[in-house]
Design brief:
The chain is mainly alpha-helical and 233 residues long. 55% of the residues lie in helices and 0% in strands. The structure holds a DNA duplex (13 and 12 nucleotides).
Length: 233
DNA sequence: ACCCAGGGTCATA
DNA sequence: TATGACCATGGG
């Protein structure tokens, strides 16, 4: 299906319109330059710290890790858990996340870090990431896509909400079903997956919000199945 | 004083 | 397999 860059979509959507949704969002917002992180390792740390947490809180934690010279796998793996917890405190769940970071870094070092892991096939790397305690499907896919440039589509709460409101899904599909939907419909494409997920986050944060969505003026409004969108108050 | 935010694990039934 | 409790800080 042809894209309609710069225009408002006007028909109810099916799953085959995922490409057009991307093009419409890109025309609206422009490239998002994701993931916000200086290095691949910082992306991995950020992916764990942002679990169920606002990104602004993660930025503080990253700053504190840098200031304490702890933003490297050796320092995190060998840090005192209480010290590490204090550094990442702003992200919430800091006791659990400190353990998750340490478990991840121990695996990362044992596996020879990024250089060695880059040689591993995507399916095998994904399986290993999921075996690390505290890394579930979304965190694994964040790392695969944004730190290892693998063609894996990230499904998060924003993606679920947007697809359900558009009428493409019901909202209760399992993670793997939604990931397969995007990957099979769009075809493996790292640059596209990277940009699309970033655009979904941008759109869901600033317009397709959980409550009080700003449907008036939305580029997807004409084709969206969401009923009674609350406009700006 | 709520509700929400770029989840995941574990214990139950 | 499917729900619920739990983890915890910061902004609106």
């Amino acid at each position: 299906m042809a894209s309609n860059r710069g225009q408002t979509m006007t028909k109810p959507l099916s799953r085959h319109d995922l490409r057009t949704v991307h093009d419409t969002l890109l025309a609206c917002y422009g490239p998002q330059h994701w993931w916000p992180g200086e290095t691949p390792f910082e992306v991995m740390v950020g992916a764990i710290l942002t679990q169920n947490t606002a990104w602004s809180n993660v930025e503080r934690a990253i700053q504190q890790l840098v200031a304490a010279n702890h933003l490297n796998p050796e320092a995190i793996a060998t840090a005192d858990p209480t010290t590490l917890g204090a550094l990442i405190r702003p992200t919430g769940y800091f006791n659990i996340k400190a353990r998750r970071l340490q478990g991840f870094c121990q695996w990362y070092l044992a596996r020879g870090q990024r250089e060695a892991l880059m040689e591993m096939p995507t399916v095998a790397l994904r399986r290993e990431l999921l075996a690390v305690k505290g890394i579930g499907p979304e965190t694994a896919d964040d790392i695969l896509l944004y730190a290892f440039a693998r063609p894996v589509f990230v499904i998060d709460a924003y993606t679920r909400r947007l697809l359900a409101r558009l009428g493409i899904t019901r909202g209760d599909e399992p993670y793997e079903a939604l990931r397969a939907l995007f990957e099979e419909t769009l075809g493996a494409n790292v640059a596209l997956f990277n940009e699309y997920h970033a655009l979904i986050v941008r759109h869901a944060k600033e317009r397709c919000r959980k409550r009080q969505a700003l449907c008036e003026g939305c580029v997807l409004a004409a084709c969206c199945q969401k009923e009674e969108g609350i406009t700006a108050s």
